[in-house]
Design goal:
Number of domains: 2
Protein name: 2-haloacid dehalogenase
Number of helices: 11
Organism: Bradyrhizobium sacchari
Radius of gyration: 18 Å
Distance between the termini: 20 Å
CATH topology of the largest domain: Rossmann fold
InterPro entries: 2-HAD (IPR006328), HAD-like_sf (IPR036412), HAD-SF_hydro_IA (IPR006439), HAD_sf (IPR023214), S-2-haloacid_dehalogenase (IPR051540)
CATH superfamily of the largest domain: HAD superfamily/HAD-like
CATH class of the largest domain: Alpha Beta
GO molecular function: hydrolase activity, acting on acid halide bonds, in C-halide compounds
Order of helices and strands: EHHHHHHEHEHHEHEEH
Largest sheet: 6 strands, parallel
Oligomer: single chain
Keywords: Hydrolase
Number of strands: 6
Amino acid sequence: MTTTSDLSAVKALVFDVFGTVVDWRTSLITDFMWWSGQRGISADWTALVDGWRGMYMASMDEVRKHPERGYVMLDDLHRRSLEQLVERFAIKGLTDADLDHLTKGWHRLNPWPDSVAGLTRLKTKFVISPLSNGNVALLTNMAKFAGLPWDLIMSAELFEHYKPDPETYLGAARLLGLKPEQVMMVAAHNGDLAAAQKHGLRTAFVARPTEYGPLQKVDFEATGNWDIVAKDFGGIADKLGC
C-alpha cells in the first residue's frame, strides 16, 4: 500500500456517490413506504428497490452497446426500469406524476453518518466533487437535500459516458486541469477503483458493508492495492492530514 507521503501530488478527490456517499437502499425504501402510506398504495417497496438497483448496470450497458442512439441520462434509465418493475410487481393506481416522484427518489438520498463531516474535513485541503453515473440535476438536488458540500458537480452526463469507461475518469482530471495522478477516486466499490487506477488516478477505498442490505455479496473489504483503505471518510481525512 502506498504511504501518505507518496500522495503529496494529489489536489482533488472525486467520489463515487451511490453506496459510497449516500445510503440509497434504506433512503428509497423508507421514502417510498412513507409516501405510499400517505397515498394508500400497497407494494413491496423493498423488493422494488432491490430490483431497481439490479437493473442499473444492464441499463447503462445498453447505452454503451448502442452509441448510435446517443447518450441517455440516468434519470431516464431509472424511469424506464421503474415502469418495467411497476408492471412486473403489478402495482396499481400510479399516475405519471407518481412515477416521476418515485424516479426522483434518487434525488432524495440520505448520506451515511460520516459523509458530511468527512467531506467537510477533506474540503479544507482538496477540491472535492462527485464522479457519479447520476446526472447533473440528480447530483445537484441530492447535494442540496443531503447537505453535501461539493466544490462542483461532475457527472457521467458531462462526458456522455458511464463509469467505468475511461472518458469519465480522464475527463474529470481534464475538467479540473489536473493530471490523472493528481486526482484520487474514492469509492466503496473495488471495481470502480480498479478502473480509476488503470487510468492513472490514485485510489481510496471505504467499505460500506450494508449498502445492499442482506443482498450484499461483494466489497466487504478492499481487494486491490489501493493507496488508502479506511473505515470511513474521517479515516481518509486522517490519512491525508485534514
